[in-house]
Amino acid sequence: MLNIIGKKHIFITLSALLALASLASILFFGLKPGIDFAGGVAWQIKFFGEAPSQERLAVIASEGTVIPQENGVFLIRLKELDEAAKESLLSEFRSVGELEELQFQNIGPVIGNELRRKAIWAFGLVLALISIYVAFAFRKVSKPVSSWKYGIIALVTLFHDAVIPAGLFALLGYFIGAEIDTNFVVAILVVMGFSVHDTIVVFDRIRENIKNSKGAGDFNNLVNASVNQTLSRSINTSLTLVIAIIALLFFGPVNLQNFLIVILAGTLVGTYSSIFLASPLLTIWR
Question: Which segments of 96-253 are extended strands (E)?
Answer without folding.
Answer: 99-107
